[in-house]
């Protein structure tokens, strides 16, 4: 089975968790894209849901699929968010933001009673950190913020290169919120809570891709079948 087929499998299972009348959060990325496409098919068959997209890309896809959209101002509490992840561990701690949407993804996940991660088996790790940690920062003061991020990470036991993410044209990648992303190649993050706490103290850091205590469940598809964690 290809990676795309595995992602679709996980998305199919997640779509079966959606019931009429639900208020949904729609994730971002190639796995979430499968979910939005499958959800669109269910909506066209008569399923009645409203959804908050976590990026402009997902908004465009959901609109094209005919999914009714809302905002967290109109609908501040959601029933279920389904989103991908760059990594997840057995305690449902995540690294997200590979697609650059971590800020809206985290706001939407925090507003949801349930957040179910969909992923192929390659995303499951014993210790977070193989995937560089995305850290969203304000463009003003980038050089100083970068130094402060490195120092904060070091206090939490993490060292490694901090690269400014680039767009395909070589310019800095700009998020939907108008910010930049530093990718921290820290390697093993032994204490994600300590790192999250340290990063939160740095002025200029808007948020980071450690999602701790947000995911309530996961559907992970591999050649061996579907593994479900949490609820
Ligand atoms: C975007 C994300 C994505 O969910 C994450 O990067 C996984 O993407 P994909 O499903 O394409 O592997 O956090 O900000």
Automatic annotation (TrEMBL):
Reactions performed catalytically: aldehydo-D-ribose 5-phosphate = D-ribulose 5-phosphate
Isomerase as UniProt keyword: yes
Record flagged with keyword Methyltransferase: no
InterPro entries: NagB/RpiA_transferase-like, Ribose-5P_isomerase, Ribose5P_isomerase_typA_subgr, Ribose5P_isomerase_type_A
Enzyme Commission (EC) number: 5.3.1.6
Pathway: Carbohydrate degradation; pentose phosphate pathway; D-ribose 5-phosphate from D-ribulose 5-phosphate (non-oxidative stage): step 1/1
Keyword terms: Isomerase
Pfam families for this protein: Rib_5-P_isom_A
Assembly and interaction partners: Homodimer.
HAMAP family: Rib_5P_isom_A
Protein's name in the database: Ribose-5-phosphate isomerase A
Native organism: Chelatococcus albus
Lineage of origin: Bacteria, Pseudomonadati, Pseudomonadota, Alphaproteobacteria, Hyphomicrobiales
């Amino acid at each position: 089975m290809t990676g795309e087929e595995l992602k679709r499998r996980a998305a199919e299972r997640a779509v079966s968790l959606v019931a009429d009348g639900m208020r949904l959060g729609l994730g971002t990325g190639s796995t979430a894209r499968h979910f939005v496409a499958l959800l669109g098919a269910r909506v066209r068959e008569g399923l009645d849901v409203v959804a908050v997209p976590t990026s402009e890309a997902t908004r465009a896809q959901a609109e094209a699929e005919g999914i009714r959209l809302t905002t967290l101002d109109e609908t501040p509490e959601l029933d279920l968010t389904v989103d991908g992840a760059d990594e997840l561990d057995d305690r449902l701690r995540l690294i997200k933001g590979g697609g650059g949407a971590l800020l809206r993804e985290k706001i939407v996940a925090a507003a949801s009673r349930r957040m179910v991660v969909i992923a192929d088996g390659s995303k499951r790790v014993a210790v977070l950190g193989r995937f560089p940690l995305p850290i969203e920062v304000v463009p003003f003061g980038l050089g100083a913020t970068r130094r402060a991020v490195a120092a904060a990470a070091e206090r939490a036991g993490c060292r490694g290169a901090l690269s400014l993410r680039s767009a395909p044209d070589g310019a800095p990648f700009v998020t939907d919120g108008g910010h930049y992303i530093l990718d921290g190649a820290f390697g093993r993050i032994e204490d994600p809570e300590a790192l999250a706490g340290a990063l939160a103290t740095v002025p200029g850091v808007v948020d980071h891709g450690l999602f701790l205590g947000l995911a309530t469940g996961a559907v992970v598809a591999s050649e061996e079948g579907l593994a479900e964690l949490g609820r």
